[in-house]
Amino acid sequence: MTRILPLALALTLTGAGALVAQDTTRAAPAAPAAAAAPSTATVEAVLARNVMDRVPQDTGIAFPPEVGQLVLWTRVTGGEGQTLTHVWFHGDTEVGNVQLTINGSPYRTWSRKTIPADATGAWHVEVRDAAGNVLKRIDFTVGQ
Predict the structure, then answer these.
(1) Which pLDDT belongs to residue 91?
(2) What mean pLDDT is predicted for residues 71-92?
(3) Residue 96 belongs to what H/E stretch?
């Protein structure tokens, strides 16, 4: 006992005898996601009733209620490898979005949106980059 007492006293004075529990079951907090860099792409876009041979047909910004379907045709320069999104709105309500990967420069792509006959009024469609920046916006009307 006389040998243990000095050792216990030395451990207590140096702090080596203190036991500390560490919870290793908690996951480390996730690092915040890196914000996507703004796109350097140049975007041209038109609204059309159809695309034939990669060319928009019957373009416009005012369409009858029975239009049925519209196409947002987009030509992108300088955006190879990026993802752009076409976001469709009826009034201020988002009614569709389509992600499109840009595989070259220049690159032509498009998305289609079915327009119900009773969905008249103001519409718009936006072309957004991966960071959510609006690169292009086209306002149009249906049935007015």
Answers:
(1) 97
(2) 96
(3) strand 93-101
By CB atoms closer than 10 A (0-12, 13-18, 19+), residue 8 is exposed
What tokens appear for 54 in the block? 């990669």
Domain ranges of the chain: 42-142
pTM of the model: 0.73
Query: Chain-centre distance of CA 131, in angstroms?
Result: 6
Mean pLDDT for the stretch of residues 50-71: 96
Terminal-residue alpha carbon distance, the chain: 100
Please state the φ and ψ torsions of residue 14, each to the nearest 5 degrees: -90, -10
- For the domain spanning 42-142, the CATH number is 2.60.40.2550
Under 8 Å CB-to-CB from 10, ≥6 apart: which residues?
A: none
**Residue 52 has what pLDDT?**
94
Residues 6+ apart with CB under 8 A from 78: 40, 41, 42, 105
